[in-house]
# Entry
Amino acid sequence: MKKIAVSLLALGVVCIGVLCSAPAQAQATRTWVSGVGNDADPCSRTAPCKTFAGAISKTAAQGQINVLDPGAYGALTITKSITVDASGNFAGVLSTLGSSGIIVNALSTDIVVLRGLTIDGASSGGIGIRILAAGIVHIENCVVHNFAQKGIDAQPTTGLFLFIKDTVIRDNQNTTNGGGIFIVPGVGGSVRASLTNVISERNLFGLRTGNNTEVVARNSSFTGSLSSGTVGSGIGVNAVGSSNAQINLEGCIVSNNTSHGVQASGTNTFVRLSTTMVTNNNGTGIFPTASGQVHTFGNNRVVGNGTNGTFSAGSPSES
# Structure
């Protein structure tokens, strides 16, 4: 009996040690949020959290946060591979007083998916979606609006693949820092971006890229950009830089901007147009400056601008 008691005591000590070393709460691969949830809950389907910030700490890397019902779920900083999916529900992210709605600052191998979100800056928020680092970022079926600075701002210092699809970026029009889509990598960074069915309207500019960027936009529009006197404001599409800044437009509309329609500024900046309409811009429709180049495949429509401008030498003639 004494040997059995000693053995049971030893087993109890081992079990206690195991329990003490286990995490207080394991992360789940799928979590949920609800407008009537509680961040103290485990974020399960039946006990959801109330905010994205509460759910992400309980979601494993490569996991998914799902939205159960319409609600406002707060700002979020993402530091790992994750999907935030609000498909079929209204999921608001309200960001005010200079703060960003969503910040992505993950590893260069991480994949981040943002789907079905409405991100509102209430005219005082800083940046809608700010991308500092990640391997791949997908932005799908989102609305980003009313920010004092940029709607989407990507300035990574490593390589980034950015995919924006079926998304509206509008009314981000602060007179000095506003803008629609801003893709300007930092030192050592590069971005390859694909924009499909994207609407950028009534921002300080529609789309602006910097060095080491390769952007393809399909079936998208860049309209109503507002001029404030700040350099680069009021332009629909603008490639700026001194090293490999490229924008390719296929089946797009660039119109009603208060300054220029399409501009390439600086050495080794290129914009290429195919089946694209550039019209009703107050300034110059096609405007290559300095050593920048704007090329055509000869199948565009450039009409009704303050000055239509001319494509760079070597381009086919327009019909």
Observations:
- The first strand starts at residue 28 and ends at 33.
- The radius of gyration is 24 Å.
- Residues 1-24 have pLDDT under 50 and may be disordered.
- The longest helix spans residues 2-21.
